[in-house]
Amino acid sequence: MYAQTARSEPHNMSDNETKRDYRDTVFLPVTEFPMRAGLPQREPEFLKKWEQDKIYSTLRGDSDGREKFILHDGPPYANGNIHIGHAMNKVLKDVIVKSQQMQGKDAIYIPGWDCHGLPIEWKIEEKYRKKKKNKDDVDPVEFRQECRDFAAEWIEVQKEEFKRLGVFGDWANPYTTMNFKAEATIVGELLKFSTSGALYRGSKPVMWSPVEKTALAEAEVEYHDHTSVQIDVAFPLVSATDPSLAGAKVVIWTTTPWTIPANRAVCFGPDIDYVRVKVTAVSEGALAAVGEEFWAAEALVGAFASRAGIKAHELVSHVKGAVFEGSILSHPWRGHAGADSYYDFDVPMLPGDHVTIEAGTGFVHTAPGHGDDDYQVAHVKFGIPVPYTVDESGCYYPHVTLVTGEHVYKVADHVCELLEGAGALKGKGKLTHSYPHSWRSKAPLIFRNTPQWFISMEKTGLRTTALQAIEDTNWYPAAGKNRIRAMVADRPDWVISRQRAWGVPITVFVHKDSGELLQDAGVNARIVAAVEEKGADAWYITPAQDLLGSDYSADDYEQVQDILDVWFDSGSTHAFVLEGRGLPSPADLYLEGSDQHRGWFQSSLLESCGTRGRAPYKGVLTHGFTMDGEGRKMSKSLGNTVAPQTIIQQYGADILRLWVVAVDYHSDVRIGDEIMKGQADAYRKIRNTIRYMLGNLAGFTEAEKLPFAEMPELERWVLHRLSELDTMVRGHTAKYDFNPIFRELFDFCNYELSAIFFDIRRDAFYCDSEADIRRRAARTVLDAVFNRLVLWFAPVLSFTAEEAWQSRYGSEIESVHRQVWPETPVNWLDTALAAKWATVLDVKEEVNGVLEGARRDKVVGSGLQASVTVKLKDQKNLDAFNGLDAKEIFITSGAKLVHDAAQEKTVAVLYVVAEGDKCERCWVISPEVTAHGELCNRCDSVVTAADAAAE
């Protein structure tokens, strides 16, 4: 956007004369702000300066006494380099914090890390496995120290990677869940649940990983396709409440053959229509036999017949499900010679609301030790004992005859053999379906009945409190409320125990005889104090008697050894990060990926509601997941991952930051080479806009500023747009919605500034005299635009905004990030002027289109070589140009506007080659130049005055 020097021969000049070079009379843009950003090289320089200037603590000093804004950081896991999802999350948090800071708040951001739990423990175990050593042979405190060291090492790595993104925060004092004071606070929060009566030990089926040998929370579970063996099994009727039921077998369908040894009931739907069918023909190899009779749901009997190889059957009778209530079945292996009478129990038929006719047979095999629905119906509602069937490694206990010691992953064929031998197997096949897997080992999970520690959702009203807290919270996007509400409304009690080594222990004592939890404030205080002094290891290295004190005997109490669910750790962070540091609580905002509705958002909600009766946050924002450029989930096996470190090395962190706000981060987002090239192009346009402003603001002073009342319409129109943008930026910032901000600011740079204001006023910037009202007005507005646009972009383009600010005001000036977004004068908003200029710009677009055609046809080389006549059908369109210089707006050397109500088109544009010669200074073609020989009247006046001043 630099002016060029004219080289054409002047009029009325002899061949022997030398034409004057007018470049030194033109105000060419002057700036050291380079066109090429060189972000990968320049950004570390700014990082170093921010570190030297202690930018975060400086901002805290600047903000002393202001309203605080707290975005509480959800802790990433300290076990590897950050990935693109981490980068998006941390950048978005930084954009929000900086935008709040620049609106005059004290925006505090304390980064943190989750340090306990299975992923880290798994890494340390891998080291021992490679050495053929068993982790259980290692001293637990020594093992825990290795886990602590591993986490500490990765915290330092991730810290530097996050700082390289340009994220401001209290990096010198982050929080970690393994800090001794944090561990003590976590223990204290647990003991609050114990004291309230919400904590209990119960035996019920929980999600269990046989590989990791521990219970898992729902947030630690992934769902993948899994191929299961599906079977149809016939249960004989022992006694029937209705004589019409006798003589036929009840058929169940299941995709977990390994749970057959744990069957204790069969459920039916009271309102479902069931039919009794008699087999009349079967296919070769069928497991069903001619003459057998079965009960199945009427809607599903056809599917069952297909699976069982039944080619034909006849309908014997029809009943409603309620008829089955009170009937007794026998287990298929009842009386088996090798079972040692283990399966010689009654199998009652129970009504169940969970029974549907979507799949299966309409009868549900019920193993209360291996499913929550089964547990709720059989045990909770009808009091059927829950058997212990499978051990921690997924193998059947010794007392489970016929399958003793076998692994549940491998037992399906044997179970089928046993069922077929008993004449009970009627169908067998494969089914691929979505199935829970461990997020760490990727192995399929099981539901397993095992003693665990739970926090009750009902006993102290936790569910009700949490549901009300959800209503009281602002959710961004709003759909997040319904999602988490459904999860909390339906969730079972919170399983908080893990059978692992690395984490905060469940620090409670249980009386060996009564099974009662010890409730003693003094004991609890000693436990918390010990952990604060020695860390969570205190539970293992401090004698139990020391913790119990003189009022109790350690011989009478069991010291629980289970580890707390890491989601309880992170769910307690509000207690030691916000309250523990004297910050306002609840936080203004929690921000994580949408999967955290069942993870951190929920565990934090439940922890805070259970101990404080409210949510730990006022608002919750979720973003989507990162996908590759084709919309596929990122996977190392597919080779489609995108590392933020690679993007930074190639493009710079500001391009990555721009991508975060340029996408709709509320949904899943794509990233890839072509997408990043597009962001780099967008960045260049923004940078060139800033560069153009800097170049044309060279030497601008306060004395040059022109009062608003003296400004031409074009400048007042730009100020009107700034007023609208100010409202838009603040409004969307309040909703943490930065994508519309980026789009509108980007369009403002490309259209209103570059294509209109800069284009029209280029002549004024370059060629008007310093004192000219038009040039002063344009530069006054340019100053206002720069001071807003750069500050609005600063939370996103943190490095570039700093560079631009220093380029204009000097490297010793206060950081751009210490500035506050300027308020906009109310008189800048002028809707009537905006409506008028909307018409003017519509007409300008028509003129531009015609002149573009003339350039393509090589009739003219630029608009200044043309003179246009614009015919307007509507008088109001003509009136819009009152007081305006049309040729200045169209950037032509001549322009005439006429009213023609008879024409068909709203706007008709005619052009001719402009008459006269070209001004050697501004390139306008005019008869004035013909008269003077080189310059138009304006340029002649400016040059004459400049020459006189120089003498």
UniProtKB/TrEMBL annotation:
Positions that bind ATP: K636
UniProt feature, compositional bias: Basic and acidic residues: 8-20
Domain Aminoacyl-tRNA synthetase class Ia: 46-671
SUPFAM superfamilies in alphabetical order: Anticodon-binding domain of a subclass of class I aminoacyl-tRNA synthetases, Nucleotidylyl transferase, ValRS/IleRS/LeuRS editing domain
Any one GO molecular function term: isoleucine-tRNA ligase activity
Residue span, Zinc finger FPG/IleRS-type domain: 916-941
Short sequence motif named 'KMSKS' region, residue ranges: 633-637
Keywords: Aminoacyl-tRNA synthetase, ATP-binding, Cytoplasm, Ligase, Metal-binding, Nucleotide-binding, Protein biosynthesis, Zinc
Subunit (UniProt): Monomer.
Recorded domain comment: IleRS has two distinct active sites: one for aminoacylation and one for editing. The misactivated valine is translocated from the active site to the editing site, which sterically excludes the correctly activated isoleucine. The single editing site contains two valyl binding pockets, one specific for each substrate (Val-AMP or Val-tRNA(Ile)).
HAMAP family: Ile_tRNA_synth_type1
Protein name: Isoleucine--tRNA ligase
Source organism of this protein record: Kordiimonas pumila
